[in-house]
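Morning run. Coffee first, then this:
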Amino acid sequence: MTSNPSLTDALLCIEEITNFYENRLDLLATSIVWGMVAPVDFMLKTNNYFLKGLYFYGSPNATKSNTGKIILGLDGHQDNPEYNKKMSEIDTIARLGATVSKTTFPKLVDEVDLNPQDRVWLINSLKSVIDSQIARSRFNNSRASTA
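And here it is:
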């Protein structure tokens, strides 16, 4: 039987991470599986299936951001600012579309508060992005260079 050092390292890493998810191994397992499938979600959309986005919520220091970084770390994106976003970077439909349209890999948007009434449009836009093949990425008459 041959040994794959990369696989061994990955399994040892998962074993070490489980210490931080005591009594919540289901959260870790779901996050890892979701992170492996999310980059190819576009294939599911062609058959009218979709993979629901993850929305972590809870008290401070409940490993929400770190769980997101573990998901990004599956592909080596945990420290890349293009994959670690703030709420102000998705606060319009055009910015949200520009953010999700650049890659199929998951992105972490930190400190998102979806509770205020003025953010109902964001919830609906996120639903549309998740289950639709089209995300609006620009305004036709805009002079902005990206979104």
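The helical segments are 5-17, 25-37, 41-45, 64-73, 93-101, 120-131. Good start to the day.
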